[in-house]
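Example record

The entry below shows one chain as it appears in the dataset: sequence first, then structure tokens.
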Amino acid sequence: MGNHFINRWKAKEKEPGIVSKITSVGKPQESLKDQIGAVIQRLDVQTRTLDAAEQRFQIRDRDIFNRILKAMADRDEARAHILATELAEIRKVEKMLMHASLAMQSMSMRLSTVSEVGDIVNVLAPARNVMASVSTEMSGILPQASQELGNIGSLLGDIMTTTCQGSEMPIEVGHASPEAEAILQEAEFTVETRLKEQLPEIIARKSYIEPASIET
């Protein structure tokens, strides 16, 4: 089994260029190392896409927050409440984008360490489950990114299946593994910490924007 892995890991092609390697990712003749390298590249592209989207929402966040402060200063409680509701939705999106980005960064780092046969299941299985979870999370925000993440998850599954054929290594299916859950929870904790540090709060002035204070 070890020799099988080593033979797949080493590049044996009569070498097409790097572009053709990336575009042919998942094909049987491509080495395992190149397949995982292509996955990492695609993950990094999607991470940059999510980070750019997060920055756009942060700009919108600051704008709306300043408008809330102005409405509060003007004692315009109805407008402050409407803006606060909009800001809450924007911050939900910011949180999801940050969570997805951190999860993908974590998986990219883990995939880059794959160097032994045992790493295939220990790294690729949770990576595939994380991709499925993040893809679902992004489906209502960035459908194209969601689709690409789903494709990456499927590719990881194909790599596992191909690599583990003829070996005794189990292929994990079904619900997210404990390792995948731990990765997602770690990202969630990091997100919560960063948001507390980065985003201004309006809770202290909540009395100005309670729905009950709005006259109908």
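Notes for this example: Residues 32-73 form the longest helix (42 residues). The CA atoms of residues 133 and 176 lie 8 Å apart.
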